Give the backbone structure.
Amino acid sequence: MEWFTALNVARIQFAFTVSFHIVFPAFTIGLASYLAVLEGLWLATGRNVYQRLFRFWVRIFAVAFGMGVVSGVVMSYQFGTNWSRFSDLTGPVLGPLLGYEVLSAFFLEAGFLGVMLFGMNRVGKGLHFFATLMVAVGTLMSAFWILSANSWMQTPVGYTVNSVGQFIPEDWWTVIFNPSFPYRFVHMVLAAYLATAFIVGGVAAYHLLRNNAQRDPRVMFSMAMWMATLVAPLQIVAGDLHGLNTAEHQPMKVAAMEAHFETRRGQPLILLGLPDSDTGTVRYALEIPKAGSILLGHAADAEIAGLDQLDRADWPHVPTMFWSFRIMVGLGLVMAGIGLSSLVQRLRGRLYDTPGLLGTALVFAPSGLVALLCGWTVTEVGRQPWTVYGSLRTAGSASPIELPAIAGSFAAFVVVYTAVFGVGVYYLLRLMRQDPAAGAVDEAIEEDRERTSMLRRLTAWVREEP
Amino acid sequence: MIPDLDLALIWVVLLAIAVLAYVLLDGFDLGVGMLFPFLGGEAERTTAMNSVAPVWDGNETWLVLGGGGLFAAFPLAYAVIIPAVYAPVIAMLLGLILRGVAFEFRGGTDRRRALWDRSFFLGSLVATVCQGIILGALVQGIPMEDRAYAGGWWDWLTPFSLVTGLALAAGYCLLGATWLVLKTEGALQQRVRGMAGWFGLATLAGIGVFSLWTPFLQAGYMEKWFGWPALLYTAPVPLLVLAAGSLLFVSLRRGSDLKPFLYAQALFLLAFIGLWISFYPYIVPSSVTIWDAAGPDVSLGFLLVGAAVLLPLVLAYTAGVYWVFRGKVRPGEGYYH
């Protein structure tokens, strides 16, 4: 077990805690904005369906947010527990970025969350809406700063190195808006929105499959499918631009993603296959000749760099890169496909009456989150063997913690996370399964029923049914 | 940027304020968690939990600011301290998870309520004792070589650090009990008022033991506290602790709702000032000074601009949130599931 070293266990532990964590912020970034939209629509139109949906999702938000907070506090200390050398050396650059995240985002979210969850009877509607907006703004600010910090680690610029090896910022603007940041930020925020839209759509589809006349799930489903229709294609464009940016700044990462072992003109696009780093080949490759050069170099005979330009010891793990990337892209295409077919059914007036569409939306509810995790796997595994790309090695970043200690804490994290987040996810699913309109039999629902039945009467009249 | 500003000193003051804010705020909600087994039944526990539900999240954010601020302004201190107290840091984080999720999970299933009540209690206790142990380990001193921690993996575990852990637990229980005196009524309030007295005694005893033990850990501490003329400046601190302690008991006896909480907070403030006297000018006692650990001015200055604008805003809306939820906990106001 030569891979079983303190360094590798530290890496696995960090990957474990950060992967568990990111699912919840991603979901809450999207859900916070959705809640702000729902409450805004409620205040603007006065239609109670929006208020009921707000109440339905805000309970889910509270659970997801709570899990995001507790797993996030862990992250703010994992830099020190696992990567104390990294902390010392990059602290002057990354510390202030994270400091801004805490001051501008975490306090905003945490402060106004209490009002959003419990304050409806204590403050007016206007102030409550303001609290919801602040929570949504907070989640986006948080994404801004943490992605700036991560992007700087991918494409570090605007710094010098001092005598003890610390990275010293020279120009903050350059550091914050480093070359990969705008792409990564847009790609991640869209991913969070899309992941949330598919969860909302999946929950709505679940309820509609049981009874497709229900009003509340119809509103949810319609809103979610509009997001899928509009945002999924946008995300494909954003992802492509992000990929080209990576090709420019981290060409070896792209080489690993595409399993390009050789530097060559007329690089193929390998769709599927089994990359084998030992032989430098892709077995059973299904490929489109020259398409790799066309995509990355915009010419059929453009020279595209391969992994042969790196020492073998410095390659990221190619099969992980290759497959994570393909799962992400595949799911992205599926999501765009669902968005498109929902548009078709919508135009045909059969958005809520197509079991195939509802079933697909239900099955692919977690697709956004899975794609997001795969995307992060690509970008983080692809940064190896560096923590600060090209400047600080992962091996030189670790804490002086010995294997038994770090393996012990890893075991404790696995046990606690599995138990706590297992229960959390079970509980989230239970909340999602509840009837959104349950317990809300008030005049609003009566009024909604009235409206539905009037609509039915109208359609019956149009169709000239008796 | 004004060149003559001692940015490192400004930042250590800001960081001290963040840690103090954390202790004063999260202290009472961790304390509420530790009091859970002593409350009378499910209804009282629900009321107690609802009293902190709207604010615990913001309270815990000060801990993130403490960690994040240390990383930002004093990266060397962050890099040395956290490996030195590795085990208690991990245990504290796991404790905070177990108690944090209890807020959400407790209401979820009736038959599991008892389980999450225990999780809330145990998580709060573990997190608190670990925070105390971390403090104790810091006060003992942490050795550094070549910009990295240079001690053993169990150095943090000593009789002194264990006493600190228990003393902090007593102190947070006092904060929690006086918070509940402020926020509740009736039988629950009577119960916690009685507890506050006992935890007040335990807290004063803890502060006493800690204060008398500390000077014997390092010659530097002895000099600072009992040297002449330093004694003139340090003597008021223990005297004020005794005064605040007496006022705490008087206010509890007189049946005041708010004052016991304020005097309990005053005790923590004074203990914190005492710690400042012991630490200064070190940030990692006996090995790293504030200025050794400080990041470059370009980093401290950049974050200071943001802190100067954002920290007053944070304090303002945090105060606003406490104002919105002022007064006694209203029945049925809490997690609506």
